[in-house]
Amino acid sequence: MNRIHVLDEETISHIAAGEVVERAASVVKELVENAVDADARSIRIEVSADTTGITRIAVTDDGFGMNSDDALLAFRQHATSKISRPEDLDGITTLGFRGEALASIAAVSKVTFTTKERGSSSPEAARLVIHGGEVITRSAVGAPEGTSVIIDGLFYNTPARRKFQKSVATELAHVYDMVERLALSNRNVSFVLMYQGKERFRTFGTGSYPDVIAGVFGTGFTRELTPVSGTYGLVSVDGWITKPGSEMKTTQTRFYLSINSRQVTSRQLQWAIREGYGTLLPKGMYPAAFLDITLDPREVDVNVHPTKKEVRFSRERDVMRSLQDAVYHALHEERVFSGSAEEKIMTLPAEIVGESVPVYSPVRVRNLPAAPFKQTEKQLRRTESDAPAETTSFVPEVLGQIGDTYIIAKNETGDLIVVDQHAAHERIMYDQLVARSASADSGQELIVPIPITLSKKEIAVLPDLLDVLARAGYVLEPFGKDVWMVRSVPVVSSTLGDPEVIHAIISEALDGVGNTDEVLDRVLKTAACRAVVKGNTPLNPEEMQRLLRQLMATKSPYTCPHGRPTTIVLSKSRLAGMFLRT
Ligand code: ADP
Ligand code: MG
Fold it and tell me: Is the separation of the CB atoms in 401 and 538 below 8 Å?
């Protein structure tokens, strides 16, 4: 008996679906890209959800549509109008070309597809209803030119996949993120994102980068950007990046890059951009970058990944060098500091863009790079008040500091110890935050609440985090369109209300799964890290002594909350060995 057989179409389509349709956001991506390929001027994305997950996705476009026969064919595996021969792969100008998306989506959902060809003389549009890949009905209905795709019951017939979907908030955040990216990379198209029947997001298809950035992130954000444009080596670059000295992030969530109009993610490109900043970028921080990169299509291969986000370059090193140069030049031109981004943004009237609420931050002002000592003094005092007055452990005697980062001291047995001042203070702060979070008074109300402008994604997930944040001592409340107010922060430090800290906490809380205790722990660790003495900070002997006293009062003085050592011991016998005295 033969054991090998060719798989039937249904099984094949399920396998393909697994690759293309990972989650709701991938459906949105494929449908929107089809709309863009169909020359749409405006695209509307509607999403609904209940407690079980995203229940419905509808994408409507005013593109060139299809006739009834093509519509039926479009749902077949490998059916496409975009390429026909192998050599076409070298000159792809559309976003899609594999002919997989519609078949894959239809295999794992219930689709209602309505399409009418542009310029068609018939008043009727073709409608197909397809469940799990099977055509249920085919009819003619009245509809405007263009295409509307409604997806109900995503993964209804693939329970395993359905189970892998994250919380509604997280799936929604991915959808927002996807639409943001699509809007940023298709600036001539107007996008509307609706959730539960309400408009959440709109761009106007003006073609201008700042307009779209303002629509997505708020007008205030565009003031922190500077333009990049020109040809450098192999690449032409056009777009915007964060001005030196503006707010940077610790996560690389704001890289929006396209290569020859195709949005891509690429660690190498991100690296090249950061290299271009050189010393203008604080260590561990990331700028925002919205860049269109153009280069000879023969230098780049986009056909490497099913969802086509990754790219390969034939001369990778040269491409990176060119991009790095482009960024470097943009940052070293005089206008960087002249606020030219601001002048260019308002090509739309304010009532359309929506006035952004002025963001002032009393805490920020207090936090301006103060006289270096004062600042450290404050950071140390913060943890002092909560520390037990006495510690029974011996407090090592400070001998000095090296590299403005390590405290050199002597312990009770006369061994030499080296303490990482940041890791040590982190341990102290973290312990206090944990203790406070277990008590009823973990928070302190701010006299002046701090407004913070959140991204759509943050706004989508924040409601899910409020309980955990409250345990940490945070109270946040919605205020304006994309502004929330920080009303209360952990008792140990009022700087924990800094927008930068809140952004980091939200992004950290979302990073990975876990029960509420685990999420709380991540929140506390992030907060602790932000509020304490950093490396590269000179400390005077008295400050170092106080830090060591606080450290010895903690339960586990020898590791920081992330498990790295706070202290290295060089015992006398070890020293003797090193000097070959034994
Ligand atoms: P691909 O986009 O890779 O060609 P799809 O499965 O996404 O594959 O779509 C199959 C075909 O259906 C497309 O090549 C296109 O001709 C047609 N199509 C899909 N969506 C639309 C749309 N919104 N408007 C017009 N034509 C569409
Ligand atoms: Mg497609």
Answer: yes
pLDDT bracket for residue 122 (50, 70, 90) = confident
Model pLDDT, residue 372 = 45
Distance (angstroms) between ligand 2 centre and the Cα of 96 equals: 4
Give the domains, in start order, of the chain with CATH numbers.
9-204 (3.30.565.10), 210-339 (3.30.230.10), 373-568 (3.30.1370.100)
- Cβ neighbours, 10 Å, residue 440: 6
For the stretch 436-462, pLDDT in tens is: 888 888 888 887 888 899 998 888 888
Residue 104 alpha carbon, nearest atom of ligand 1? 6
DSSP three-state, residue 489: strand
Instruction: Tell me the CA–centroid distance for residue 33 and ligand 1, in Å.
Output: 9
The 10 Å Cβ neighbour count of residue 368 is 7
Q: How far does residue 71's CA lie from ligand 2's centre (Å)?
A: 13
Which numbered atom of ligand 1 lies nearest the CA of 64?
Answer: 25
How many other C-beta atoms lie within 10 A of the C-beta of residue 226? 21
Whole-prediction pTM: 0.58
Q: Please say whether the beta carbons of 213 and 184 come within 8 A.
A: yes
Phi, psi (deg, nearest 5) at residue 237: -125, 140
| Alpha-carbon gap, residue 302 to 304, rounded angstroms | 6
What residue owns the CA closest to ligand 1's atom 14?
A: 80
Nearest atom within ligand 1 for CA of residue 147: 23
CA of 292 to the centre of ligand 1 (A): 25
* Ligand 1 in reach of 391 Cβ (< 6 A): no
d(CA 498, CA 496): 5
Pairing of strands 255-259, 289-294: parallel
Mutate to test the pocket of ligand 1, among 27, 34, 81 (most ligand atoms within 8 A of CB): 34
Helices 316-332 and 267-277: angle between axes, nearest 10 degrees: 40
Summary mean pLDDT of the chain: 83
Q: 250 burial class (0-12, 13-18, 19+ CB within 10 angstroms)?
A: middle
CB of 104 closer than 6 A to ligand 1?
no
Over residues 537-548, the mean pLDDT reads 91
Does the CB atom of residue 99 touch ligand 1 within 6 A?
A: yes
Nearest to 25 by CA among 131, 173, 161: 173
Measured CA to CA, the distance from residue 236 to residue 234 in angstroms comes to 7
Angle at 561 between CA 557 and CA 563, to 5 degrees: 85
